[in-house]
Amino acid sequence: MIQLNKVVFLCILILSIQKLSIAQNTDNQLPSITLKNIKGESINVSEITNGNNPVLICFWKTCCKSPGEYLDAVAEVYDDWVDETGVVLYAVSVDDSRSSYQVTPFANGHGWDFEVLLDPNSDLKRAMNVGLIPYTFLLNGKGEIVWQKALYFSGDEDLIYEQIEKVIAEK
């Protein structure tokens, strides 16, 4: 029982620290950081737009089970989301330079139809105060960060879709 209490306490502590780091990020715009996609093309993150439609930015890493499950779950419904809301998704890999070679085969092997960006030095991750992976940001049509969520639990894709619908309703 004591071990369980320690685990619960540790989880609460980690989540509390994560919430504090979120609260410190008062800028609701994407920072001006240039990343490459898996095709080798440079993309300045601050210039990501989608007309007047929402954008999802999802941080992940190949070695972590949960982010792969999360992006696989989103990939299953992504085409429907695009048709219904016009949302676009950018999956930002935070694999370092030693493991970033795994990102392209991983993404292609999973059949993801969304843009995959590489953040091998974690510049964007640090600038956006991302701690726990996976981590998701939702931007409205003006490019403002309107919602964010750490971690993934089965069924979270439904929660994310609800948030996308809210953004659409506020247009």
Keywords:
171 residues, alpha/beta, Glutaredoxin, 7 strands
Number of helices: 5
Report the uncertain regions. Answer: 7-25
Largest sheet: 7 strands, mixed
Number of strands: 7
Can you say what the CATH homologous superfamily is?
A: Glutaredoxin
- Give me the secondary-structure category: alpha/beta
N- to C-terminal distance:
50 Å
CATH topology heading: Glutaredoxin
Strand percent estimate: 15-25%
Broad CATH class? Alpha Beta
What would you say the CATH architecture is? 3-Layer(aba) Sandwich
Task: Give the strand line-up of the largest sheet.
Answer: 2-1-5-4-3-6-7
What oligomeric assembly is this protein in?
single chain
- What's the average pLDDT? 87
C-alpha geometry: globular
The run of helices and strands is HEEEHEHEHEEH
Q: What features would you describe in this structure?
A:
- Helices cover 42% and strands 20% of the residues.
- The protein has 171 residues and is an alpha/beta fold.
- The protein has a single domain, classed as Glutaredoxin (3-Layer(aba) Sandwich), CATH 3.40.30.
- The protein has a seven-stranded mixed β-sheet with strand order 2-1-5-4-3-6-7, covered by helices on one side.
- Helix 2 runs parallel beside helix 5.
- The relative contact order is 0.19.
